[in-house]
Structures are given as C-alpha cells and as structure tokens.
Amino acid sequence: MLILLPPSEGKADAGTGRRWAPDRLSLPELNPARQRVLDALVALSAGPDEEAARAALGLSEGQRGELRRNARLREAATAPAERLYTGVLYEALDLASLPATAQRAARRSILISSGLWGAVRLADRIPPYRCPIGARLPDVGALSTYWRRELTPAVDAAAGRGPVLDLRSGAYAATWTPRGELAERTVTVRVLHEREVDGVPVRSVVSHFNKATKGRLVRDLLVAGARPRTAAELVGALRELKHTVLEHDTAAGRVRQLDLVVTDL
Asked: Engineered SS bond to 121: which of 26, 41, 115, 166, CB 3.0-4.6 Å?
C-alpha cells in the first residue's frame, strides 16, 4: 500500500543534523527536477527584490526570515522528514509514538508531497524550507504544473501493484493523477462531520479537523498492521477499524472516492 500525504506549512528546526545530500533522497530519478527547483528557489530568495520574492512564495512582511532560510538551503542542517513536518495531520499521526513495526511500515508506505522536493519518504533528510505548491518560480514556472510533468513516472513506480490511499489536499493532489488500472486501485477520502439539527442528521465538510482525522486514520491503519492488496480490501480495513465509510459509485478507470463520517471532533 502506498499512502500519499501533503506536507505541512509548519516545520521543525533541523538542529545540527548533516547537510542535504541529494543523492541520498528516495526517488532519485527526481533529483534533476529537484535541483532545478532548488536553484530557482535559492536565487529568488537571495535576490535583491524581496517584495517580489515574498509575493511569489505567499509570504507576509513578517515572514521575511523564511527568505533568509531559503537562501541558505544548500548549507542548511537537515532532519528526517518524519520529524520535520509538524502540522495538524502529523501531530495526529504522531509517528514518534508508533510501535516499532508500525514505524517501519510507515517508512515503507508513506510518500509526502512537496513543492520543493516533489515527493519524499519519511526517512529522507531535508532542511526546513518554505516553498508552497502554489508558488511560481523563475525559470520553473508554476510548481503544480512543473511537478505534474515530473512526478508521474516516479509515483506510478512507487505505487507498485497495491492500493494507493491518496490523502493529499488542493494543488498537491493535482501534481499526480493516477490513470487507467492504477486509478481503480487509488482511494481518496473526504471527511464529513455528522451532527443532529432538529433531530435530523446533517453532514458537512470540515477543514481543520479534516487534517487531524486523516492523521488518525493513517495511524489506525499502521498500528493495526493493515496490509490490503486491493482498494476493496483497503475500504474493508477501514471499516474493520470502526471508521464509518461511505463509498461513491465510480466508473471503471476512475479513482474510488470515500466519505469518512465522524461525529466526535
């Protein structure tokens, strides 16, 4: 099973870890594309037009320190991605507290999208950075379009012949779209909150709690040692873990879409 996660805007300081070594990252076929984005990001962040750089990266005036950090990426200390990303999803997943077998399964199965690196595994050592997928970089263009061209062969290969649980959000989901038979093995999840209004159950899409719920969902699968071989078995595993899952009918060659219904946020 391949689990696709979004990155988080929040990142821990890398501390005194060793510097970034591109030849040690997973999916090495992406290294030329990564290098091109890194070069463009460093040049933009270190350039004389701070206002243009902040606009390109969606930074406020109070976040100018992010530019200084980006400018030093080649010399920056690194940390494993599993410790670097600190957002809501990763807090709920709480990788550090997983049993050893679940941690090993997480490192095998999870792939994290990134505007800078394309995609990384949990054990990959990377420095803290600021490079949202919505950015447009000089000589690279829109990152969502750029990575859509580069990622497909690498993620297709990483998927192997098992199911794919795609929990990415927004523009990150657009950087890789499964096709054909692989689409039929891919499952996406939408989180709905169910509450009673005048005695009638009402379901609505949630935002902040969406991330936390997805983190807990992945944690449940890892702790349970789930090893589904098909998309149908993945759906069954979620139900066995007492998740309320509603499956939408999809045509052949289309991604399976699930609604995960939660009542306790």
From this structure: 26
